[in-house]
Amino acid sequence: MMILMTRQDMSYDDADEPLVAVTGIGNDCSGETVKMADTGRWTVVLLVSFGLLTLVCWRPWSYNVFLQFSVNEPSRINESQLRILMYKLIASGEENSKDKIDDAVNVIELHMQDESVKDGHEKLKVTGKHENSKITFENDFEIIDGQPKKIHYHYKAENVDKNEKSKVKDKSKSMNVVDKHENTKKVSFQCNDPIEDNARFDCYPEDIATKEKCVARGCCWKPALKRRLDRDDEPSVSENPEGVPWCYYPSDFPGYTVQNTSNLPYGIRTEITRSTPSYYPRDIMDLTVEFTYETDTRLRLRIVDPRNPRFEVPMDTPPPPGSQNPQYEVHLSDYNQPFNFLISRNAENNSTVLMDTQGAAPFMFAEQYIQLSSFLPSPYVYGLGEHRGPLLHSVNWTRFSMWNRDHLPQRDTNLYGTHPLYLIMEQDGRSHGVFLLNSNAMDVVLQPSPAVTWRTIGGILDMYVFFGPTPSDVIQQYTEVVGRTFMPPYWSLGFHLCRWGYMTANKTMDVVNKLRQAGIPQDVQWNDIDYMEQHLDFTTGATFGDQSSLVRELHARGMHYVMIVDPGISSIQKRGSYPPYDVGLQMGIFILAGYFGKPLVGKVWPGPTVFPDFTNPQSIEYWTMMMKKFHVNVSFDGLWIDMNELSNFVDGSVDGCSSDHFENPPFVPGISGGSLRSRTICATAFQNLSLAYDVHNLYGKFEAKASYEALKTIRGKRPFVISRSTYAGSGVYGGHWSGDNSATYEDMYYSIPEILNFNMFGISMIGADICGFELNTSEELCTRWHQLGAFYPFTRNHNSLGLRAQDPTAFGPVMSKRVADVLSIRYSLLPFLYTLFHKSHTYGDMVVKPLFFRCCQMAPNVTLTASLDKINLHISGGSIIPMQEPGLTTSDSRQNGFKLLIALNTTGEASGDLFWDDGETIGTYESGHYNYINFTVQKNTLRSVVKTAGYKDEPMVVSKVIVFGVPHSPTVVTVQGHTTHLNTTLHLRYEASFVRSLVCTSDFLSQWFHTR
Asked: Which residues are the active-site residues?
């Protein structure tokens, strides 16, 4: 079988360009030759037999036959002639290309009949006869489940003399077309070798396997003690103990072999090739593998097709300086041996093996399927988002599917974001991380060996390994690649309130007034889509009232306003009446239904909608233009971008999707809905960078970037953007909330690992809807959730339409008091929280960390009571926490004095720091317009050192110092050389409890620290 292929994005402008490449050749038993070519836009099959060359052309998997030829000597048609023939036919775009091809090829009569489709079987019949000949033919194409399976052909010579008829006998025969899905192989002899259940690697991940399907792939079939459960459409993560695959790879499964290996200035390059195809269509037979030693603690692995470019995620990764002293080693297979590699720490770092592909599933790289498996050094695996579940993942056959989707947060399903990063705690307490820079739909499977398998359906394999050695080091190294988190405006650290259902500006303001009257701190008021006119972006509904006055009143109180904006732009408004659509259409800014088609139309809240293509560089100009025009009347301060997975109320589009191989890939990860277009746009939707097939998971990130740039241009201050959909690096432009959770204790519990995970992913501004979005909450749950949510990096109460109110005053004065108390604690800690965000922005630290980041050993557990009146707040010994007297807004709080909360460790020492600026100017750290102070306690002495003093717009006065862990009752306190005894004006309180504290306040103490 000869198969000729070319890529969809290659040029057809020059016939001399290599439009096709031979990947295999063979003949059927009767000598007839079948030649196939895939141009991406068209697939061409050439059947050469009995002096006839049948040319069948179809758009991928649609089978529209339109040409057939006779050839004088078909056996002499070579690859070059076929390539030129294909070029001329495709470039001409004409069904009759007789005058544009060689004289030896002549058009003949052709008839095509599309017969009925039943049970996934489709038949096409092609009949015709040679020009000036008595030879007739009839070809039947049998298509099963969208794939060509067999060609039945029949030739007959009529009314010809005896000599001619002896040359062309009546003949009928059936033959199989290459089915790359089930490329039958002999069962390996290695299937008799014992392989433990937990060491099996799944050879049939698509659905429940059968022995016949398994053996057809050349894999081993052996029932396990318990068979895994059938996969349905919904789950994408399976932690059931019955996950042992019955169909698994033998140890000698054919794959790639190593050819040429060479050393690079900072790394290794090798060429690998495979001689036999896999069971997936369109293998890339030759690949280039590069290991680049980018830094001493960062290794990059890239595996690419050296001949044809494939989609790569656009990301401003740092230029590799090259490692001078790498803390790792890479070992490759020898020449002509099966391709495997091993990555380990070097001998100075314990030589721990971090990735080892020897004995794991074979490496595969086909047009729409890439697979890499490796053994892991430890079962303690974290990361791999966005999914709901515990912080520590189970390696008991757990699958994580990634394809951004609008889905209520549930376990065992793909959610709003894609973050293909895992972090592992090794047995000796060191940590490392692995990140796959790939945006196509994928599965990541953990198994008990322990081992991991990555399966993605496009792009390239672009993998980073971060060597830590601490967990915090790993995250810093990761964010150095994907980008540090944005520096938030100070006001965004305050309390946010929202709900879907305020309906009017007056009702919105009524709730704000209730919180103010109850003494509950609040900085930001939000509105959901109910402020819009018929859910149209950049409009205010006639029944909503005066949105402009609402925002002005908030600003007058030192508060801020955030509004929702969805990406869907209504496409059914009267022409000239709705600029977001008219201007977008004029600029060519919307996602297209095809390469040269009209904008794709989906359905969301306003009805039929089109969607801006945020991969188009002009989208930032368009988005800024729309925002700026609306901001003239409604001076919003931040943006809430929702529904940007993309979410779609119809699958694909209102007109449906094509049926090609992008919409129906040979392997679909375990995503909710079982289809790439489920509740989103078509995978074949055309965007500036590529098809949605490649860039779907990037939509939210690119919209966040456009929104960030629009706010920066319009307001001239730090942008604040909260996005539901995210990808690696989204934290550069904004934050995230955990989506449409529910009012349950389970949802409250799962918010904790969600927030910790997103801090690992470099998205520090993260929170969950306090009290729950769906379902009616209770007073106790809502109280508990406010007490937890007060310590989220992003603190917002939000719930859905038609449910009972759940703002802090909704349950009466008792709950109001409890919420006011805990939010006052948050507001007092904002200088500390702001400093943590500064470290995240500049160094890649996490704002919120799991406890194992500080200590990886288990200590004795202590159980404390937690009444509804308070939340237990613990301070690590050795810490100095900068605080501030709380106000009802951050603007009020910033006018108050500072205090230092000091918790001594067992040696009587502590340290801390404070970053301070005006809280809203862009780039204060880069320009030096900030203050940075270090605090230390040693030998009963508190010292402060001003590292940077670039911000002098407001005084910084310390009015109180609180010290925990003072071993004995003090008699003398000295401040700046002034000694004060207990019987003077210094107010000192010593509490002899199990944690001893010293509280100092005085007039001259307030002058102890001043950055004038």
From this structure: 642, 645
